[in-house]
User: Which sequence fits this backbone?
């Protein structure tokens, strides 16, 4: 059996790139097939916002002429400007349980980055931490939430045998109960007694300004977090366009202190629930039309908290705990309104102890663990 690594090229290459994921997850009942339209735009140099500040190459592994794996190698110039650590990244990694194919793919990504002067490689991130990231290493027994990765149990092992080691873990929690823990309620009551603390919903009349404000608050709140890179204007513009068909004003909440926005919470309808139920059509745009119609007519029974945080100056202030608890109380208000089967809080760094404690109080132990790996080049 011969393994050959090729760069993605032409229509055949794109077809094989898309086919890899289906082959790897052929008997995986928790896999959620994404519309080909989504997948193509994600890596399109014409459409993906990443290419306004980065570059990438894509590789496919073939065994006797059949695609068995794929990987991207990318350089994020905003990451390099922010951290100055000479780190490139890999992403979109999927592979059959074939050590030779996986090692060949990782080597291709390493060589491509090394040839461009990078000293380290980390991933998977597809394309950045602001998108889908991490390799699932625990929690294979349920389908992923929207914009969260899903892998086969052997994927992490293949990366480790290819020379990669754990850098950091990202944890996901799922809330099934809507009663606030006593401690959270006690802290939230402090904010409830203050006229200076309030919540407001997304204003659709100033939609793009509010989306920009939300990501500015997150950039400030997360600025000290591992690996964080501020959102580029192109990223925010893309996210704003993609969110508009699925967002409802009450799912984007701003926390205000004396009339100034200092916190944010964004809850997404879990469209993976719809995609998994409807399957995938071979006719372009049919999947998207069916998904949006279902979302508008019936909504979803599951959700994901994609953004949550308060401004850095407030995190260590006298009201910091009360402000954070107020966000969680607002989340519980939304749960009572929509009565979902679960709401996922993801992802949370395994080094973020305060947020982990709050999430565990609200939902119990994590249900999924994604791992970022790294290696020197």
Assistant:
């Amino acid at each position: 059996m011969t393994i050959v690594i090729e760069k993605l090229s032409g229509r055949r290459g794109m077809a094989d790139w898309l086919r890899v994921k289906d082959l790897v997850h052929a008997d995986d009942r928790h896999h959620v097939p994404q519309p080909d339209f989504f997948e193509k735009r994600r890596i399109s140099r014409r459409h993906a916002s990443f290419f306004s500040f980065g570059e990438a190459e894509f590789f496919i592994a073939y065994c006797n002429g059949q695609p068995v794996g794929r990987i991207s190698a990318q350089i994020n110039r905003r990451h390099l400007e922010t951290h100055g650590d000479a780190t490139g990244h890999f992403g979109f990694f999927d592979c059959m349980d074939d050590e030779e194919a996986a090692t060949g793919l990782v080597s291709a990504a390493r060589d491509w980055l090394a040839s461009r002067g990078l000293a380290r490689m980390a991933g998977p991130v597809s394309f950045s931490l602001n998108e889908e990231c991490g390799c699932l290493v625990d929690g294979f027994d349920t389908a992923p939430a929207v914009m969260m990765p899903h892998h086969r149990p052997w994927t992490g092992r293949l990366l480790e045998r290819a020379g990669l080691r754990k850098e950091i873990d990202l944890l996901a929690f799922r809330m099934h109960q809507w009663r606030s823990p006593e401690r959270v309620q006690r802290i939230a009551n402090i904010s409830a007694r203050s006229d200076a603390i309030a919540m407001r919903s997304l204003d659709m009349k100033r939609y793009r300004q509010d989306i920009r404000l939300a990501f500015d608050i997150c950039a400030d709140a997360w600025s000290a977090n591992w690996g964080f890179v501020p959102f580029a204007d192109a990223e925010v513009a893309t996210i704003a366009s993609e969110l508009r068909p699925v967002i409802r004003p009450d799912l984007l909440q701003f926390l205000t202190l004396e009339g100034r926005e200092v916190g944010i919470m964004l809850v997404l309808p879990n469209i993976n629930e719809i995609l998994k139920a409807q399957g995938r059509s071979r006719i372009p745009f049919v999947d998207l039309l069916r998904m949006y119609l279902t979302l508008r007519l019936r909504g979803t029974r599951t959700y994901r908290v994609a953004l949550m945080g308060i401004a850095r100056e407030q995190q260590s202030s006298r009201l910091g705990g009360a402000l954070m608890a107020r966000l969680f109380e607002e989340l519980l208000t939304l749960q009572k309104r929509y009565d979902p089967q679960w709401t996922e809080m993801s992802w949370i760094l395994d080094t973020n102890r305060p947020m982990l404690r709050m999430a565990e109080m609200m939902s119990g132990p994590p249900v999924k663990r994604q791992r970022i790996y790294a290696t020197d080049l």
